[in-house]
TrEMBL record:
It is found in: Membrane. It comes from Ceratosolen solmsi marchali. Belongs to the KRTCAP2 family. This is Protein KRTCAP2 homolog. Its main location: membrane. Keywords: Membrane, Transmembrane, Transmembrane helix. The gene is LOC105362167.
Length: 130
């Protein structure tokens, strides 16, 4: 079920704060093994995803539905998620970066398939005179 931009803004902001605080609360568990460190990087990439959603919905609320995310919002979301993962472990920062870039690729791909306007091509055959 789809929600409005305002509700999505609130939900993604709350999920970002909850995920960040959960990462800080379970920091000792997240650094206890190699697999948990990678999980910490994945959780950091989820912070990236939720922050990107929050920024996109904030701009949709303030500037209208046709406004799109630009590169500075993506970099801000990425930097915040990398810092959140860096507070856990250095390897979690690296895995967060990798997971975030992969997520950004698929988000862009889905967005292009959903919102791109395809222009129908018209073939015009011209007869050549001899």
């Amino acid at each position: 079920m789809a929600v409005t931009s305002k509700v999505s803004l609130i939900l993604s902001s709350i999920l970002t704060v909850l995920l960040f605080s959960g990462m800080q609360m379970y920091k000792t568990w997240l650094i206890s093994s190699k697999l948990h460190i990678i999980l910490g990087g994945y959780m950091g990439s989820l912070i990236f995803l939720f922050l990107l959603t929050a920024f996109g919905n904030l701009e949709a609320v303030l500037f209208g539905k046709s406004f799109q995310l630009k590169l500075p919002e993506v970099f801000i979301s990425l930097i915040v998620s990398l810092v959140a993962s860096g507070l856990i472990h250095r390897v979690a920062t690296t895995t967060c970066f990798i997971f975030s870039i992969v997520a950004l690729y698929y988000i862009n791909r889905i967005s292009q398939e959903t919102y791109s306007m395809s222009v129908p091509t018209v073939n015009i055959h011209m007869k050549k005179k001899k």
